[in-house]
Structures are given as structure tokens and as C-alpha cells.
Amino acid sequence: MAGLPGTGKTTLARELANRTAGRVLSKDEIRRALFPADEIEFTSRQDDFCLQVMLETAMYLVRQNPQRFLFLDGRTFSRRYQIENVINAAASLHQPWRILECVCSEQTAKRRIEEQAGTGEHPAGNRDWRLYLRVKERFEAITLPKVVIDTGQAQGKSLERALDALR
To answer: In the CATH scheme, what is the homologous superfamily, with its name and number, of domain 9-166?
Structure first.
């Protein structure tokens, strides 16, 4: 799952996992499980470490059940090396991969970010509008094959487009 903060990656990943009997692996949840609150750093170094743990977990799960869909969530995949790490892991297991890039209008992303900040429902404590703008500024266009999903449209349409991409 790729895309800027607030574009619906987590919501779509959860729906896809429900529909496919798959599993969502979340970098943000892994970080919370590994580090006490006072040791959480929202740095690239810690993000990369948590992604590596997520990939090791994914590899373990694929070895147990190669048919299961795994949805990697919690990372924007705004840098090419981040995507390459995932593709290399998939290749080492001879597994297919798909990039689902979630997009929506800035107004929609901002509303979602602000709503979730108000409820505290999102596990990433640094997720705010400033983060969105910083990530957007340095986002490297994804040039590999991908399916772009506009999560600003009806949820059913987004879900069907994503399911079609997995077929």
C-alpha cells in the first residue's frame, strides 16, 4: 500500500484483507509493539528498521501459506529504495507483488488526518498535516507498475478496483 498520509491506505488494506482472508502488516503497529512510548522515534532509521521487521514477518507468513495475501501498511513508500526492499523480499520467495497507490484530494486527506488526530485512532503519533506536506514534497514518483486507487470516491468503487488489481 503506497500513498501520502491520509489517502486511505490503512482503511483499504483492512477491507482487502477481510475480502481475501489476507493479513495486514502495519509498520506503525510493529513500532508500538517493539518500542515503549519514550523510545519511539519518527525517524527514517526507525521506520526502516520497523519495515525490515515487517518484511521478515511477511517472509515467515509466506513460507507458512504462500497463497495468502499480505498487505504492507504504515509506510508511504515515498522513496524508491523502500519499494525495492519489498520487491526484493517478494522475489526471494518467488512471490508476485502489486503496488496499490492510494490517492485522494488534499482536502479529503487533510480532513481524514485531522479527524483521526482528534480521536487518536491512528497509531502514528507524528501524523499531522505538516507531515503530509513534508512527505509530499519529497515523494518520488512510483515508476514501477502500479494501480492508482482514488479513495476519495465511493468506498465500494475503490475496493472493487483494488480487488481487480489483485486478480
So the answer is: P-loop containing nucleotide triphosphate hydrolases (3.40.50.300)
